[in-house]
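User: I'm putting together notes for a lab meeting next week and I want to include a structural view of one of the chains we've been expressing. I don't have a solved structure, so I'd like a prediction I can at least talk through. The sequence is below, exactly as it appears in our construct file.
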Amino acid sequence: MKKKLLSIVLASAMVLSLAACGKEEAPASTSLEVVTSTSTEASTETVETTAAVRVTERLDDEEVYETVLGEFTALVDAAKAASSISERFALFAKAEAYLMDSATMLPTTTRGGAYTISRVAPRTVPYVQWGNDDDRLHKMVISDDFCTPEERSEMLAQWAAAVAGEGEYDPAAYLISKGHTIQDTYTTTFQTAPVTIDWLNTSSQADTEITVNTVEGLVEYNNLGQMQPALAESWSVSDDGLTYTFKIREGAAWYTSEGAKYADVTAADFVAGFHHMLDTQAGLEWLVEGVVKGASEYLAGGSFDEVGYAAPDAQTLVVTLEQPTSYFMTMLTYSCFLPICESFYAARGGVYGQAEYSEASANTNTYTFGSNTDVASQVYCGPFLLQKMNEKEIVIVKNDNYWNAATTTLKSVKWVWDNGENPDAFYNDVLNGIYAGCALNKSTGLLDKAKEDGNFDKYSYVSDTESTTYFGGINVNRGTFALESGAVASPKNDEQIADARTALLNKNFRKALIYSFDKQTWNGVTRGEELALTNVRNIYTHPEFVQLDADVTIDGHTFKAGTFYGEMVQAFCDDLGVKIDVKDGTNGLYNPEEAKACLAKAVEELGDTVSYPIQIDVEYYSASDSQTAQAAAFKSVIEGCLGADKVQINMVEATTPDDYYAAGYRASNGEAGDFDIFYGSGWGPDYGDPSTYLDTFLGEGAGYMTKVIGLF
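Assistant: Thanks for the context. Below is the predicted structure for the 712-residue chain, given as structure tokens.
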């Protein structure tokens, strides 16, 4: 489960990524009384629930989870127990269909698929659908001028040939041959400063997109999508698939922010990093539970001596797994497997043990490791050194002593704070060469501006879509109706709050909301009609994320080798009666007739337990033209389909980014979410297996994203 929780875009040119993690304590609750009916289709039991009482208080999370997601955890467990990789993928597809049928979350879009102008050559950062490697910038190629669509097309053709083993991809040489000059600095923007530079004590991409450039792991993907040795020169796997032995590269070292050598990198640094990661419990530990031997037991109070992480000598790291895990190597590019300098950690007050760490880290006078106010509170073994960090500017510079420094194309990278409130100024900075490029969105006015000044015709292209999925969470157990400051306050009275609680526990009411959401209209207000569907996603897992390597038969369906994941999800959704087209780029869940039919069923089932209209709060950041336009579009399409006499959408304003984030992204748990529907959350996969998505909706607090549906 990727603790890289992604946020919706607020600025015109970039996607900000944040995360928050916290397991919810049991709140005061009443018992959940429901009328249930069961039906079996394609050997899958579905439980439909109808609220029989008016829900006036927040309920028990586990009871609500059972009501809305029922057997989801069991279906995921069945996939994990499969006897083959192909059966595993097919059973995950069945679990995903069940998730879609629950109508608790609504996939909206993915990243990319937007008109863009840029000086960055395509595919010059690691090209991979999972992990942190796509944030590594040390081999980025940047020109002094925008690349034309023709130049991009030719470079991508060279890239495809190189992937196929039919030549080399050298975009720098190509651009020079076309009269470009290659630049060695890169400036981009950020909206929230990192809260830590301890890469093992954070689950936020806002932190790790900076630090991942200053530290290296065991392996790294290159820009052709191929896994390459990094700090591990080589590795071997035991015959039973349980033991991985890595040879750590000699000559790699840790350096201070000023470039002075501090210590050699050793295998013990990886053990120290793993131990520290488990101790911090910052949201990364969930990824390794049940994977690395003894990790779950240690987190439950056991001894680290039983954890499958050992350094028998300075250059040898041995990792032992609980069971053979086909995707384990793909996990190693995520931050939870990064090292820390063992001796530096100790010098900065670092200790081991969960209780010991908790006590030590609370005293910032003696524990000074990884502070976001002091770049000297960390040492670095990667291609860059962090030399400046404050609320307005972050700077990393090339580490000339990095073992592979000859391949680092940039001398420095700078992040400049920009809250996205002045897209015209940002666009002008792009044209003046301060920034390398930007998206051209309709709502910001930049699409029309670029068409008027000719840059659209000369330079625009449609950016690649990605594996990240943004989605709307439907809060089925809301507990917060304003921030502590009083900001982002719901306009609902107590009766309206109770009505919404009751209605959102009704599956047909949730389905009515989902089927009435015209994503093409909603997305088009920011991206324009031409690209309104380009980045639309309709299921949680990228539909082409994995494919079968052998034929498999599940529930009467025979899926042939080569079948993509999405095709299987489609078949199981059809079995369950989910009206969906799972393919990317389609308005695949919008079905106004089905929405009205589901609403009619909900009205009948709810009876006199609610009064209409049901009021649904949607938060938005009012200083963002994109957010404001999308919130207005959401209100228009939902009320236009279902009728404002039955469902009323309240646009609840957040006037600052901090308030907007606090209402959703940074809510520490399900109870803290200040929304009824929050469609800005996103998830990027950690590794090459569907569980990296689906595990985030597991029950009993195990799922990282259940907080976005108001649980745990």
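A couple of points you could mention at the meeting. The longest strand covers residues 34-41. Confidence is low (pLDDT under 50) at residues 1-49.

User: Perfect, that's what I needed.
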